[in-house]
Amino acid sequence: MSKPTTLFDKVWDSHVVRHIDDGPDVFFIDRHFIHEVTSPVAFLGLEKRGIPVLYPQKTFATADHNTPTINQHLPVEDPLSANQLSALSQNAEKWGISIWALGHPKNGIVHVVGPENGITQPGMTIVCGDSHTSTHGAFGCIAFGIGTSEVEMVLSSQCIMQPKPKKMRIAINGKLGEGVLPKDVALYMISQISASGATGYFVEYAGEVFENMSMEGRMTVCNMSIEMGARGGMIAPDQTTYDYIKGRDKAPKDEDWNKKSSYWKTLKTDEGASFDYELVFDASDIEPQITYGTNPGLGTGITNNIPAAGEVKDGEVSYKKSLDYMHFAEGEQLLGKKVDYVFLGSCTNGRIEDFRAFAKIVKGRKKADNIIAWLVPGSHIVEKQIKEEGILDILTEAGFELRQPGCSACLAMNEDKIPAGKLAVSTSNRNFEGRQGPGSRTMLASPYVAAAVAVTGVVTDPREMLK
Predict the structure, then answer these.
(1) Residues 199 and 154 in one domain
(2) Residue 199: which H helix or E strand, with range?
């Protein structure tokens, strides 16, 4: 009888081309996503060495990080952004790589367009020069971010040198309370183990909470895996996964579907399989979350006060530095804090489900006068859904405007920058110093919390508005 095996081991071991004793594995990559920021230097490296792209059909390109979110029909003003976008298109054309450039009807954030077009499928290995590639783990994939030199390695050989991470399982059982979204689940886990608590591990999420989550919610959770220090995160595929994939543009069809879906059903952790580390949480302990510091682990339930230095895992000096940057103090109440900006979007929360949640709160209400809101869909397909479902009408009536798809204010690599000193409630994934603009201050939260802030102008518990 074979030894019980984890989902992670099943996918990893089936992709090892060569194992090097006391060294990394030579690891085959099924899907390689590229964008305009990390790929130009990689292509230059190939040209200098006279090496072609080995499997262009396994690489998919989209423009997202540098794209403006207004007036996308006009030339990009920033010269660096314009050059990077141009280089991506030229390299894709030269090597026969599929590209959804700025203006293409399928253009959008790389970790949104991959799943929504059926490119992401269970059991695959997926890499991209972007840390939040972990998003694709929601489909039972091993997906992780890589650096520019590794992008060049994958383009030239379709393989990567990679040490096998340790395995962690996080289970959450029970039922989530009213107003608690997948983003809250992710922020809660990170707050419990810290922003470095899963360093060296690949995390499998298990239990009733994840089994009952939508695919959009699972993508949000896996996206945030990197924020607890993990190499990536994954969730076993199930009927929810198959229903999401079936019928999408790049999904398997007919007999190919039957063959692949039969394999997908084997992708689960066997009973009795062992992990290097396991954690179990109770869903009833999770309330809407919000961060107050400068890493995603510095967060708490929205009704709590900011904890004292002795109550957090960060060192006292770095913790106080973090609060100083945020203009906050130990013991201070979070509810009622005045906010300047609200950002809904990114590869974490820029999907249709996120806009539905935001609209549920703002319907029949008005945007607060002190709030500047950037609502940015993750792709043109999401933008189309927002219009078709009447969500745009709700947003417009409440005084909001919808911007065009892109990474936007997640990382301030485009025009969407939070000004210095201003406080933003953001549905993105990072709240580092200056992440959303030099001197900007960021509180991470769910679409419900972001919507509640957008209509009140202050940090507000969304549960009060869902009654």
Answers:
(1) no
(2) none
Token readout for 56 is 């262009």
pLDDT tens-place string over residues 336-391: 999 999 999 999 999 999 999 999 999 999 999 999 999 999 999 999 999 999 99
Q: SS3 for 221?
A: helix
Could you tell me the CA-to-CA distances from 418 to 17, 257, 415, 424, 439 in Å, in that order? 45, 45, 9, 7, 8
User: What stretch of H or E contains 12?
Assistant: helix 7-13
Q: How much is the pLDDT for 1?
A: 60
**Taking a C-beta distance cutoff of 8 angstroms, is the pair 328, 291 a contact?**
no
- Whether 67 and 100 have beta carbons less than 8 Å apart is answered as no
**Could you tell me what percent of the chain has a pLDDT over 90?**
95
- Cα–chain center distance at 432: 16
DSSP for 47-97? HHHT---S-GGGEEEE--SS--SS-TTSPPSSHHHHHHHHHHHHHHHHHT-
Question: Does one domain contain both 53 and 180?
Answer: no
- Strand spans (E) along 85-165: 98-100, 125-128, 142-145, 159-162
Amino acid found at 176 = L
Q: Of 140, 191, 144, 198, nearest to 170 (Cα)?
A: 198
The pTM of the full predicted model, rounded to 2 decimals, is 0.97
Mean pLDDT by 10 residues, the chain (467 residues): 92 96 95 95 96 98 95 92 95 97 96 98 98 98 97 98 97 98 98 97 98 98 98 98 97 96 97 97 98 97 96 89 97 98 98 98 98 98 98 98 96 91 98 96 98 98 94
Q: Helix, strand, coil proportions of the chain in percent (round to 5)?
A: 40, 20, 45
Helix (H) or strand (E) holding 414: none
CATH of the domain at 226: 3.40.1060.10
The token pair at 454 is: 């957008």
How many domains does the chain divide into? 3
Show the domain range for 413.
289-466
260 occurs within a structural domain: no
In terms of DSSP H, where are the helices of 98-147? 110-116
Q: State whether 332 and 401 are in the same domain.
A: yes
Is 232 in the same domain as 141? Answer: no
Tell me, yes or no, whether 397 and 317 share the same domain: yes
> 3-state class of 308 per DSSP?
coil
